[in-house]
């Protein structure tokens, strides 16, 4: 659960902020992008043309002297986003100012955006629904912020925008904010609330959160890459797969002791043995928090599960999907969809079945910003699908969350 909450504080914890006092030579960086990105990328021009790319960079170059470093970087990222690859991004972190972050952690539910965390000094708005910022309705703000990244579907919007709405620099960039004091319009306990809020750093000493009570099964071990539990009373075998990495397939660039990572080979064997040795009413694989990694280990497990007779009957195997299901997790969800009779339950995924990936990166010569790009195309279906739509769509509400109720898992139990 702690890991999930920290996602909402992503930008509030950018204590590594370090603006470079030297003027950035954006012309050098733009020329570098013009040459290197098309050369390194798997196929940058799947959606738009080379001329579109060159014209866009030239347009930014013409006005870059009128803009701050942050504004130039955002315009470059917006241009890259229009080429449709959500894995190809320019890191903006070096130009983000952690002193210009609103102390609110937002979560998106079926009934809107809610303040899930804030500081003690702003306790009044904890658990309130965000309606407007400075008189601008939240849907208008979301539409603007959605241009910063390549958006594959509505699930992508639900995943990305709550994390960047608190960043005042983005609100300033789009003209929603012109001064440090910001007026929020919220709804709480059936009443409308107008609230003035100022930038403030949120930390473990001053943060307040709305936490689910009781803590449902899905939130109990989100920090673990993978884990399982047998629910004896319900005769259900629950497997949560949060990260597509392990000792055998460590995260890209991992610098820790690989031997201390959990073994997926051991996990694979334990899962198969448990299913073969027990007559479970249901086996549930939960992918709702899985943002990817390496799909190979999951694919091998799913291939073996597909050969087990007791899982072949419709209604014995369920896969939970969510808005955070992305990248390699998408490949594994499609493995279940294509190779088994699994019933998919939950929310649409932010990742597309057919997508670019296998990321590499390079550093721009003047700004030193990191630009990551895709080197491979993964095709899972002949259809041009923007998301994986589950067989049964269920999106939790804020009331579900705070009351510790998981409507997705509860629906599965009732089948």
TrEMBL record:
InterPro entries: ClpP/crotonase-like_dom_sf (IPR029045), Tail-specific_protease (IPR005151). Residues 311-393 form the Tail specific protease domain. SUPFAM superfamilies: ClpP/crotonase (SSF52096). The keyword Metal-binding does not apply. Keywords: Signal. Gene3D superfamilies: 2-enoyl-CoA Hydratase, Chain A, domain 1. It holds the Pfam family Peptidase_S41. Residues 1-18 form the signal peptide. GO terms for biological process: proteolysis. GO terms for molecular function: serine-type peptidase activity. This is S41 family peptidase. The lineage of its organism: Bacteria, Pseudomonadati, Bacteroidota, Bacteroidia, Marinilabiliales.
């Amino acid at each position: 659960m702690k890991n999930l909450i920290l996602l909402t504080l992503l930008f509030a914890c950018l204590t590594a902020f370090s603006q470079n006092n030297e003027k950035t030579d954006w012309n050098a960086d733009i020329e570098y992008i013009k040459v290197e990105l098309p050369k390194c990328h798997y196929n940058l021009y799947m959606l738009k043309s080379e001329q579109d790319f060159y014209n866009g960079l030239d347009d930014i170059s013409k006005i870059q002297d009128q803009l701050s470093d942050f504004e130039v970087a955002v315009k470059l990222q917006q241009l890259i986003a229009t080429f449709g690859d959500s894995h190809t991004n320019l890191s903006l972190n070096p130009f983000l100012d952690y002193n210009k972050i609103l102390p609110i952690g937002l979560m998106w539910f079926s009934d809107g955006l809610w303040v899930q965390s804030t500081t003690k000094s702003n306790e009044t708005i904890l658990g309130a629904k965000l309606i407007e910022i400075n008189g601008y309705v939240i849907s208008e703000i979301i539409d603007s912020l959605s241009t910063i990244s390549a958006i594959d579907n509505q699930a992508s919007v639900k995943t990305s925008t709550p994390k960047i709405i608190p960043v005042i620099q983005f609100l300033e960039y789009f003209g929603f904010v012109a001064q440090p004091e910001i007026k929020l319009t919220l709804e709480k306990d059936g009443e409308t609330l107008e609230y003035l809020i100022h930038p403030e750093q949120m930390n473990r000493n001053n943060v307040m959160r709305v936490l689910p009570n009781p803590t449902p099964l899905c939130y109990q071990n989100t920090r673990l890459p993978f884990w399982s539990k047998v629910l004896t009373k319900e005769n259900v075998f629950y497997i949560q797969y949060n990260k597509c990495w392990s000792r055998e397939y460590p995260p890209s660039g991992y610098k820790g002791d690989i031997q201390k990572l959990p073994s997926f080979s051991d996990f694979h064997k334990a899962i198969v043995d448990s299913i073969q040795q027990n007559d479970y009413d249901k086996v549930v694989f939960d992918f709702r928090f899985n943002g990817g990694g390496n799909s190979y280990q999951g694919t091998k497990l799913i291939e073996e599960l597909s050969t087990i007779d007791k899982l072949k009957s419709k209604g014995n195997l369920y896969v939970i999907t969510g808005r955070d299901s992305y990248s390699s997790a998408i490949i594994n969800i499609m493995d279940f969809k294509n190779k088994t009779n699994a019933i998919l339950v939950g929310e649409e995924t932010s990742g597309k079945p057919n997508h670019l990936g296998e990321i590499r990166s390079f550093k721009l010569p003047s700004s030193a910003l990191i630009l990551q790009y895709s080197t491979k195309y993964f095709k899972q279906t002949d259809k041009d699908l923007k998301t994986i739509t589950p067989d049964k769509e269920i999106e939790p509400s804020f009331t579900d969350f705070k009351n510790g109720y998981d409507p997705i898992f509860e629906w599965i139990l009732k089948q």
